[in-house]
Write a structure and sequence with these properties.
Largest interface: A-B, 74 and 74 residues
Largest sheet of chain A: 6 strands, mixed
Helix content of chain A: 25-40%
Low-confidence stretches of chain A: 312-318, 320-325
Strand content of chain A: 15-25%
CATH class of the largest domain in chain A: Alpha Beta
Radius of gyration of chain A: 20 Å
Oligomer: homodimer
Order of helices and strands of chain A: HEEHEHEEEHHHEHEHHEHEE
CATH superfamily of the largest domain in chain A: PurM-like C-terminal domain
């Protein structure tokens, strides 16, 4: 039997079903971070990710300092997604002999810039040689006040579905890279959005102070796929208004130029690292941070999303749903 | 400039010098674990390691369940080396498509057996595909009472140098594997010592309750190399009595059969995962756990080791010192 017979999510659910998160308020596999309760009024948050050459990045394309930035940021974003304060990073890499010291220094420079930017210390890791490809594994540890981590399972019927920032820029940037299209003006901006994601740490911290925010995660696989995780964990369905999906001027301009549908990037494209959260409508009215309401949650078939088109620009869009395999 | 120009330790020291462990009692790069203080009477301990196919293991040789066991154990051993209680593990792997699901399940089975054996929960990780080799990254989190983590830097002049268990078995087991020698009786025992290391968690916990234990680490690169880390961190020198290095009956038997020098494995060989600790002589006299005194610490040239031979078996042994490169 091959791995592809059960797929990535099949494997994860096998691992999760056999893992034993233990007693109490421990949260294990299935959220952006693990949550480990302490007795000093805080919970420890832990996130870990692996980035592999030719799977997550093309060595010759992404500049090493941006690869360093991105390696740190995608994990920091997981702490942000729980409403936590990131604290420390651990960096392990397997380095092919062909890699120059300058490359590694530039990588470390970018990695540290991301840590400095979000207030983390580099506290450890592992360096080893690699027979072939560069692979990078990062663990980030953070904390939040006891019981305040926003899980995927906390959403309630009637909650509004909101996002920070704009969606789809990163995925369009990736397409520009993969197709070797010219990078200037708005298209270079989209490429940068792909290479240099901005974890929404401050937004996550602010949202975690608002009791009306019930569920949260970061958008790493595209909202169409990620929202379903919240819906299934909370046993809810959603209606999403395609006309309200926030799209940047850069995305609209590049899509118009190339005849691309911006919504495909915004819904199906990954690595935006914006926050997706659900909030009751009363709390939403008083929310101080910039955000966009894109839909609402309902009881009903768990995990189901109705995609509603409501603008002339979008009526021809038939969203088919997202699958990884 | 190439990585080999500065070597592994050069790179680590570059990373360490630019990392910022922050204020307070935080311990960062340079010990077995990072130590992150909390306010509930405990410190959080974090260790992370990467294992890469063809660097750390040969896929066709080590059975998958033992690779799983070993991947967990080498990190658990780092927590043990601080005198901590391991708590949770995070497993990331990059999986080549050629790997069967049975292989992965057997790996996970061995991984979980190690976690169960030492009381850890599997709380997260990352699964990704790999274009080529299997690589595995494990992070283990534990805790110890505030300020009780045994660092490499705490050794004092006059301390006795002690180890748990016997040394060299794992390295001799590796040689048996690499040379394709027959595995039966004592040689199969040595191979198992290489594949199935036993982290000394209980011993580490007991040693951490004894105030006279000043420094501790696990023996992963061989005592000759590892002891120097304690000496340099504590600015001390040591005299080690080669006649007192604990050697197992299996090692002596296999070495005698093959004309090998057992001390070379015991001093230069790695992956024993026994504990190396320093303790004042009064405390040593009352120590309840099995251990062997192998030498003593002195003021003097930091990092220098005098190797003293004291038996007919060892007078011909000229220890040349260990270097990774």
């Amino acid at each position: 039997m091959k791995l592809s017979d059960i797929g990535e999510f099949g494997l994860i659910s096998e691992i999760a079903s056999a893992s034993s998160p233990g007693p109490g308020r421990v949260v294990g596999i299935g959220d952006d971070c693990a949550v480990m309760p302490r007795n000093d009024g805080f919970d420890t948050l832990v996130s870990t990710d692996m980035l592999v050459e030719d799977v997550h990045f093309i060595l010759d394309d992404i500049p090493p300092e941006l690869l360093g930035w991105k390696s740190a940021s995608v994990n920091i974003s997981d702490i942000a997604a729980m409403g936590g304060q990131p604290e420390a990073a651990f960096l392990s890499f397997a380095l092919p002999e062909t890699l120059s010291l300058d490359y590694i220094r530039a990588f470390l420079d970018g990695f540290r810039k991301a840590l400095d930017c979000f207030g983390l210390s580099l506290l450890g890791g592992d360096t080893t040689s690699s027979p072939d490809k560069l692979s990078i594994s990062v663990t980030v540890i953070g904390h939040c006040k006891s019981g305040t981590a926003r899980l995927r399972s906390g959403a309630l019927p009637g909650d509004l579905v909101c996002v920070t920032g704009c969606l789809g820029d990163s995925a369009a940037g990736l397409r520009i890279i993969l197709e070797g299209l010219p990078r200037s003006g708005p298209s270079s901006e989209l490429v940068l959005r792909h290479y240099r994601p901005q974890p929404r740490v401050n937004q996550g911290l602010l949202l975690s102070t608002c009791p009306g925010v019930h569920a949260m995660m970061d958008i790493s696989d595209g909202i169409a796929s990620d929202l379903v995780h919240i819906l299934k964990a909370s046993h809810l369905s959603a209606r999403i208004d395609l006309g309200n999906i926030p799209l940047s001027g850069e995305l609209l301009s590049v899509c118009s130029e190339n005849g691309w549908n911006p919504l495909e990037f915004a819904l199906e494209g990954g690595e935006d690292y914006e926050l997706l959260f659900t909030i009751d409508s009363q709390s939403e009215a008083g929310l101080a941070i910039p955000h966009t309401i894109v839909g609402q949650l309902f009881s009903g078939e768990s995990g189901k999303v109705d995609w509603l088109g409501n603008g002339a620009d979008h009526t021809d869009f038939q969203y088919k749903g997202y699958t990884h395999f």
